[in-house]
Design goal:
Keywords: Aminotransferase, Cytoplasm, Glutamine amidotransferase, Repeat, Transferase. Homodimer. Its EC number is 2.6.1.16. This is Glutamine--fructose-6-phosphate aminotransferase [isomerizing]. Catalyzes the first step in hexosamine metabolism, converting fructose-6P into glucosamine-6P using glutamine as a nitrogen source. With about 600 residues, this protein is of the alpha/beta class. It folds into three domains: about 240 residues, Glutamine Phosphoribosylpyrophosphate, subunit 1, domain 1; about 200 residues, 3-Layer(aba) Sandwich (Rossmann fold), CATH 3.40.50; about 140 residues, 3-Layer(aba) Sandwich (Rossmann fold), CATH 3.40.50.10490. Helices cover about 35% and strands about 20% of the residues. The protein has 19 helices and 25 strands. The strands form four sheets. An eight-stranded antiparallel sheet has the order 3-2-4-1-10-9-11-15. Strands 5-6-7-8-12-13-14 form a seven-stranded antiparallel sheet, covered by helices on one side. Strand 21, helix 17 and strand 22 form a beta-alpha-beta unit. Helix 9 runs antiparallel to helix 17 and helix 17 runs parallel beside helix 19. The termini are close together. The mean pLDDT is about 95. The structure holds 5-amino-5-deoxy-1-O-phosphono-D-mannitol. The site of 5-amino-5-deoxy-1-O-phosphono-D-mannitol (M6R) has 16 residues, from helix 9 and helix 17.
Length: about 600
C-alpha cells in the first residue's frame, strides 16, 4: 500500500517521478505528491487529492529539478485529502518525507518530543519528518544522525519504507525500510529508489536490495548502505529481465480484461518453464526432498492467493498424499494452529509483499522451518526470505482484482503436486499428465475468453441490478465459488458470497428472494447432482439460477459450458467466466474496474 519513488542526479527528475508513480498507482490511488529540488535554490512541493492525473495536471513547466521524491497514497491515518498526501514536511520546510507503512508508536513519539510543534496533517508520517527536524535543529545533529535516532525510536512492530530529502543536501536521498518493500535502481549518472522494479524499469534494469534496518544514502554517483550501527555493507546488484512495456494496457480499456485474456499464454509459458519435452516436471530436487520429509504442508495466503491455496491443498493431498491445510495469513500470524512435527510452509502471493503473509514467514524462519514462496515477483520480500521460490511467469498484474495470478498459482501447484507425487513414486501422480492437461486448459481458456459477448450478456441481464448474489458448489467448486464471489464484490460492489452448496439449507437460504442470482459451479462428477438439487431448492424460493458446468456434466439449460479437463484442475477453467462476469458487471455500472474503491493491489500493512 502506497508507492514511493525517488531520483537524484538528472534533469529528467519530474518525468521519472511521474512515470514511476503511474506504474505504482496500483499500490494506492487516493492522493499523490512530489517534492523536487533544482539544486540551484528552487524547490517545489506539489500534492493533490485523487489520482496521479490530478497531480500531473497541477504541474507547471517551471516545476523541474535535479532530484526529488514522489508518493501515491492508500490512506491509513487521516482522510485522503491534500494535507494528508505525501510528501509530508517539517515546520521549517527543510525536510520532506515519503512513507509507505504504519508507525505504530507515532502518538507516543509525538507526545514525548513534539508537543510544541503545530501539525498540518493527521498522518503518522508527519511525526517522523518533524522529529528528524527537531533532532537536527534542537539537538544540533546532522541529518544522518537525526534520522538514525528516529529510526531507532520507531517501534519494531511498525512498518516503513522511507525516502527523505534535506533541502540543505539536495542531491541526497536518505532511505530506510522495515517490512515494506523498497529497492534502489542504478541509473547511468543518476540513481533511484522505488517500491518495485517496474517503477524504475524505464530507466534501468539494474537494482540493489535494501534490507530491513539499514540506512541507505543514495547520491547521483554513489549508494552507501550502513547498519544502524554505522557499519558499512557491500551489496551486489541484480538485474530484472522484464519488458517495461509488459505493463502497458495496449488497446484494452482496462488491465483486468487484458490480464484475463493473457491466461492461455500464461498456461503455455508455465508448461515451457516447468515441464520438459517429455512432460516431466523440472523442479529443484532440493525442494522436493525437503517437501517429502514433511508430515504436513501448510499453505498460507490472503484473498485470492488464499483461494488458490484451497485448490492447491486438494492437489497436494491427491497427487502427493501429504496432509495439507490452508490458512489465511492474517489469522495464522496471530492464532497459530497446533503444528505437526515436520511442517513445510508454502506461501502464495502474487506480489510477494503482503505484510500479513510476511509476518508468518518471519515466524517460520525464526523456527527454522523450511518454506517455499510461489510468487509472480522475482526477488520480492517473500521470495527472498523463503527457503525456495517458484515463479508464476504471469507478467506484471496491474488490475487490483487478481486473475492471471490465481490461475498461474493453481497451475504451479498442480505441477508441483505432480512432481512431488512422482518423486514419492505415487501412481496417481504418474498417471496425471499435467503437460497435456495444461495444454487443454490453455485451449479451453482461449475458447472462454473468445466467447466474451455471451458472458457480457449474462452479466448485464442477471447481475447489473441485484444487490446480492451467491456462487455455490461443492469441493473444488466451492473453492472457486469463494474466488468468484470475491471478484464480483471487489469490483462491482454487489454483495456476493461463495457457499458450500450443502450449507445453504443450514441458514443462508433465508436470504434468497425473488430474482436473487445464484450461480452454481458444476465440474465434479461426484457432487454435480447434489449441487443441481441445491440450485433447484433456491429456484423454488425465487432465485434466478445460472450454471457454469463442465461439458461432460452439462445439461441443456446450463448458462456457460466449460471445455473438459481433468476434474482436479477444473478451477483453471471455471474461474474464467466468473472473472468475466465480474468484469462486465463492473463495466456495466460504469465503475473503474482496475481501481475499485478503498482497495490497493499490494497490501503491505497488516
Ligand atoms: O499479492 P498477494 O497475492 O499476496 O495479495 C493477496 C491479496 O491481497 C489479493 O489476492 C487480493 O485479494 C486481490 N486483490 C483479490 O483480487
Amino acid at each position: 500500500m502506497c508507492g514511493i519513488v525517488g531520483v537524484t542526479g538528472t534533469n529528467k527528475t519530474v518525468s521519472i517521478l511521474i512515470d514511476g508513480l503511474k506504474r505504482l498507482e496500483y499500490r494506492g490511488y487516493d492522493s499523490a505528491g512530489i517534492y523536487v529540488n533544482d539544486q540551484a535554490g528552487k524547490d517545489f512541493l506539489i500534492k493533490r487529492a485523487g489520482r496521479i492525473t490530478n497531480l500531473e495536471a497541477a504541474l507547471t513547466p517551471e516545476v523541474q529539478g535535479m532530484a526529488g521524491i514522489g508518493h501515491t497514497r492508500w490512506a491509513t491515518h487521516g482522510e485522503p485529502n491534500q494535507a494528508n498526501a505525501h510528501p509530508q514536511y517539517s515546520a521549517d520546510k527543510r525536510f520532506y518525507l515519503v512513507h509507505n507503512g504504519v508507525i505504530e508508536n507515532y502518538k507516543d513519539l509525538k507526545e514525548e518530543y513534539l508537543s510544541d510543534v503545530k501539525f498540518k496533517s493527521q498522518t503518522d508520517t508527519e511525526v517522523i519528518v518533524q522529529l528528524v527536524d527537531k533532532f537536527v535543529t534542537a539537538y544540533d545533529m546532522d541529518t544522518k544522525a537525526a534520522l538514525l535516532k528516529v529510526l531507532r525510536l520507531i517501534s519494531r512492530d511498525s512498518s516503513y519504507a522511507f525516502a527523505l530529502m534535506d533541502k540543505e543536501q539536495p542531491d541526497t536521498l536518505y532511505v530506510a525500510k522495515n517490512k515494506s518493500p523498497l529497492l534502489v535502481g542504478i541509473g547511468k549518472g543518476y540513481n533511484m529508489v522505488g517500491s518495485d522494479a517496474l517503477s524504475m524499469l524505464n530507466e534501468t534494469n539494474e537494482f540493489m536490495e535494501i534490507e530491513d534496518h539499514e540506512l541507505v544514502i543514495v547520491q547521483p554517483d554513489h549508494v552507501t548502505i550502513e547498519s544502524f550501527d554505522n557499519e558499512e555493507k557491500h551489496r551486489d546488484t541484480f538485474t530484472v529481465d522484464m519488458d517495461p512495456n509488459a505493463a502497458d494496457k495496449g488497446a484494452y480499456p482496462f488491465y483486468m480484461l487484458k490480464e484475463i485474456d493473457e491466461q492461455p499464454a500464461v498456461m503455455r509459458r508455465l508448461v515451457q518453464e516447468y515441464l520438459g519435452a517429455n512432460g516431466k516436471p523440472q523442479i529443484d530436487e532440493k525442494l522436493l526432498a525437503q517437501m517429502q520429509e514433511a508430515d504436513h504442508l501448510y499453505i498460507v495466503g490472503a484473498g485470492t492467493s488464499y483461494h488458490a491455496g484451497l485448490v492447491g491443498a486438494r492437489l497436494f493431498e491427491r497427487f502427493a498424499q501429504i496432509p495439507t491445510s490452508v490458512h489465511i495469513s492474517s489469522e495464522f500470524a496471530y492464532e497459530q494452529p497446533l503444528l505437526s512435527k515436520k511442517p513445510f510452509f508454502i506461501f502464495l502471493s502474487q506480489s510477494g509483499e503482503t505484510a500479513d503473509s510476511r509476518e508468518v514467514l518471519v515466524h517460520v524462519n525464526e523456527n527454522k522451518w523450511p518454506s517455499l514462496t510461489i510468487t509472480n515477483v522475482d526477488k520480492s520480500t517473500l521470495s527472498r526470505e523463503a527457503t525456495h521460490t517458484l515463479l508464476l511467469y504471469a507478467g506484471p498484474e496491474i488490475a487490483v482484482a487478481s486473475t492471471k495470478a490465481y490461475t498461474a498459482q493453481v497451475a504451479v501447484e498442480a505441477i508441483l503436486a505432480k512432481a512431488l507425487g512422482e518423486y514419492l513414486g505415487l501412481e496417481a501422480a504418474q498417471k496425471f499428465d499435467v503437460k497435456d492437461e495444461l495444454a487443454k486448459v490453455a485451449n479451453g481458456m482461449q475458447a472462454l475468453v473468445d466467447s466474451k459477448d455471451e458472458i457480457e450478456a449474462i452479466a448485464s441481464h442477471a447481475l447489473s441490478k441485484p444487490r446480492n448474489a451467491f456462487y455455490i458448489g461443492r469441493g473444488l467448486d466451492w473453492s472457486v465459488s469463494l474466488e468468484a464471489a470475491l471478484k464480483l464484490k471487489e469490483i462491482s460492489y454487489v454483495q456476493a458470497e461463495g457457499f458450500a452448496s450443502g450449507e445453504l439449507k443450514h441458514g443462508t437460504i433465508a436470504l434468497i428472494e425473488k430474482n436473487t442470482p445464484v450461480i452454481g459451479i458444476i465440474t465434479q462428477s461426484r457432487t454435480a447432482g447434489l449441487t443441481r438439487s441445491n440450485l433447484e431448492e433456491t429456484a423454488a424460493r425465487g432465485a434466478n439460477i445460472l450454471t457454469i458446468a463442465s461439458r461432460h456434466l452439462a445439461k441443456e439449460d446450463d448458462s456457460i459450458i466449460l471445455p473438459d479437463v481433468d476434474e482436479m484442475i477444473s478451477p483453471l477453467l471455471s474461474v474464467v467466466p466468473a472473472q468475466l462476469l465480474a468484469y462486465y458487471t463492473s463495466l456495466g455500472k460504469g465503475l473503474d474496474v482496475d481501481k475499485p474503491r478503498n482497495l490497493a493491489k499490494s497490501v503491505t500493512v497488516q
